[in-house]
Structures are given as structure tokens and as C-alpha cells.
Amino acid sequence: MKNKRFLSTTELAKILKISRVAVYKKIKRGEIEAIKVGRNFIIDKKLLGSIFNEELTKKQKLEIEKSVKKTIKEYGETLRLLGAS
After folding, report:
1. Which of 2, 13, 77, 83 is exposed most, by the fewest CB atoms within 10 A?
2. Are the C-beta atoms of residues 45 and 7 closer than 8 Å to each other?
3. Residue (of 71, 62, 30, 29) closest to 79 by Cα position
4. Buried residues in 36-68 as b, exposed as e (16+ CB within 10 A)
5. In the Cβ-directed half-sphere of 34, how many Cα atoms lie within 13 Å?
6. Spatial distance between the Cα atoms of 22 and 28, rounded to a whole number of angstroms
7. Domain spans of the chain?
8. In terms of CATH architecture, what is 1-54?
9. Contact 16, 23 (CB under 8 A)
10. Cβ proximity of 24 and 13 under 8 Å
11. Who's near 73: CB < 8 A, 6+ residues apart?
């Protein structure tokens, strides 16, 4: 597999520790860029970095920010005391 430039969906599924069907779904949603060859897809190894380093969407960032604010509001004093120890 080291000398190959492309991965099959099965190989990528093993690397990501997900099912082949999950890989197909990610391809369909545009989360994984793939090239269709006949009835199959192949994934360029150069794209593995972007697959593993997925960026958060604006919605996800806002959700995290909201959760952090809520946590600070509810547990701020406890967190401050824990940080002081």
C-alpha cells in the first residue's frame, strides 16, 4: 500500500476504522473527495491530511462557544477554585 498513490474505499475504511458504507456516505456528502472509476471510488493519498484534519463548521463553532459560555456561567466559581489549586 506504501507505493500506491490512491486508496480504495475499503482501504480508507480500515484506516479510518469505519465501515465502507460510512466512507461512501462521506463521499456522497462531499466530506471526502474521491474519483469515480467505473462503479468504484478511489481516494488520492494526498487528501488524507484534509480527511483527518476536518475543520469545524460555523454552526459547530457557535455550538461549542454556547456550551463554553453556559459552563462558565454555571460552574465559573468552581472552575476558578479548581484552577487556583
Report:
1. 2
2. yes
3. 71
4. eeeeebbbeeeeeeebeeeeeeeeeeeeeeeee
5. 23
6. 10
7. 1-54, 56-85
8. Orthogonal Bundle (1.10)
9. yes
10. no
11. none
Q: What is the pLDDT along the chain (85 residues), one digit of tens a residue?
A: 456 889 999 999 998 899 999 999 999 999 899 999 999 999 998 887 677 666 667 887 788 889 888 888 998 888 888 887 6
Q: Which amino acid is at 44?
A: D
Q: What's at 55, amino acid-wise?
A: E
Q: Give this prediction's pTM.
A: 0.56
